[in-house]
Design goal:
Structural class: alpha+beta
Largest sheet: 6 strands, antiparallel
């Protein structure tokens, strides 16, 4: 029996049940109101049931549906609190857990890919999965040389499920859209569809992870586990012990939250600059806070290849916006395609639109909070607001789409952490164009310090 619901009719029916279920629960809620229950009580119970069904369906389907759930989960910070509360627990579950495939199926995949004598590769192999994700699950084991390892086994039929789910979910984008105010869900699903198919190729993932592991070997802030063995549908890497970031979000003390947030921001910007690769799946399930204080990073199945690092346009536009150079910022946005040629906007209005968004880099340190992210989402989502009207006229060039999503996702995680982060420090260190071009970062450290202090 297949472990992943693969038949298109079955999977489509399950996904179709989501909007139908929403409508059914709304009818149920109306009946409860007629019966005398308060609107607040009925609303909370309705949202809880919706969240539970969302997790159940996406978790059972795995594949693209669950990948969508993971992508959505980092944006729960943007939801109004009365809506976020019931969704938070259900969506967060998608970051670290999913119904596992049967042991017999795992053994069959290992026998097919490693050979019938696959157990000779291991001194020990735990049949119970340590984690289950969107296209595969992870088992803890001891490699034949004594190293603790993580064995990632791909679900049979995962490729078919990924593309089918995301294709079907795009049909329900209007129903799912209200979960995250101010975000157009359809482009998110389309971009996921373009990217997640890469995750099926464990060879590409092994190459990316090996590049990161080599670059960050001995790094004081970040640890990336080495690749031990790779073959089709099986990836073996060093085991990584530590506190999952989802646990830090739920129970961490403030110093732990701040530390995790700073390291996450550092990894996002330094990783791209140092490896030419952008880790494009920054949900909390892929990070651990290690006992030695470093950030452990896993899952390199989705990366963006940026050999020159982040485009200098990003840093230059940020710096000019901070300096209030409205005309220069507008000209740069036009040149890069953020403003379509057929549209003419007021540069000062564009600057006013951008200023609240870049607030975290206007100060030496910034405390990320769900309340701040909700304010930004509400500002853009309000149909009556100038920000909403302007936002509709701006364009996101394809080359920036994944960078934009990763940045937003990382900010979402920082808001979940409630971390105080020196984000400006990371941009100055790693983002091309953010510091003035005449700054000599290598030789004139005193001059640089004076320049940074003046600009701050």
């Amino acid at each position: 029996m297949s472990d992943l619901p693969r038949k298109a009719v079955t999977r489509t029916a399950k996904l179709a049940a989501l909007p139908l279920g929403f409508a059914g629960r709304a009818t149920w809620g109306l009946g409860k109101r007629i019966g005398g229950y308060s609107a607040e009580l009925v609303g909370q119970e309705l949202q809880q049931r919706t969240a539970e069904q969302l997790f159940k369906v996406l978790g059972e389907l795995k594949g693209g549906a669950m990948k969508f759930g993971q992508a959505m989960s980092v944006f729960e910070s943007a939801l109004p609190e009365e809506l976020a509360r019931p969704y938070r627990a259900a969506l967060t579950k998608l970051q670290e857990a999913a119904p596992p495939m049967p042991t017999g199926t795992v053994h069959s995949v290992l026998a097919e890919r490693l050979g019938e004598d696959w157990r000779e590769f291991f001194e020990e192999f735990e049949d119970k999965p340590a984690a289950a994700a969107s296209i595969g699950q992870v088992h803890r084991a001891i490699w034949h040389d004594g190293r603790e390892v993580a064995v990632k086994v791909q679900y049979p039929g995962a490729g078919e499920a990924l593309l089918s789910d995301l294709g079907q979910l795009s049909r329900f984008a209007r129903v799912l859209g209200p979960l995250i105010p101010g975000m157009d869900i359809k482009p998110l699903i389309a971009e996921l569809r373009d990217r997640v198919s890469e995750e099926l190729d464990y060879g590409l993932e092994a190459q990316a992870q090996s590049a990161y592991a080599a670059e960050f070997a001995g790094d004081p802030d970040v640890r990336v586990p080495d690749v031990v063995h790779q073959c089709d549908q099986v990836l073996v890497t060093e085991w990584l012990d530590g506190v999952p970031l989802a646990e830090v979000i739920r129970d961490g003390e403030q110093p732990e939250r701040d530390q995790a947030g700073q390291l996450l921001a550092r990894f996002l910007f330094s990783g791209t600059a140092r490896t030419g690769l952008l880790h494009a799946d920054p949900h909390p399930g892929n990070f651990r806070l290690l006992a030695d204080g470093r950030l452990g990073v896993m899952d390199f199945g989705t990366v963006d290849r940026l050999p020159e690092g982040l485009p200098p346009t990003i840093g230059t536009a940020l710096r000019m916006t901070l300096d209030g150079e409205a005309d220069e910022v507008y000209a740069l946005l036009c040149d890069e395609g953020f403003v379509k040629t057929a549209i003419e906007l007021d540069p000062e209005t564009v600057l006013d639109y951008l200023m609240p968004i870049i607030e975290p880099v206007r100060v030496a340190e910034f405390t990320f909070a769900r309340e701040w992210m909700r304010e930004q989402a509400a500002r853009v989502a309000d149909l009556r607001s100038p920000a909403h009207q302007l936002g509709k006229q701006l364009n996101l060039p394809p080359a920036y789409l994944l960078i934009h999503r990763v940045t937003l996702s990382t900010i979402g995680v920082l808001c979940q952490l409630g971390a105080t982060v020196r984000l400006r420090d990371e941009l100055e260190a790693w983002v091309p164009g953010f510091l003035p071009e005449d700054t000599d970062m290598g030789d004139d450290t005193d001059g640089e310090a004076e320049m940074v202090e003046t600009s701050a």
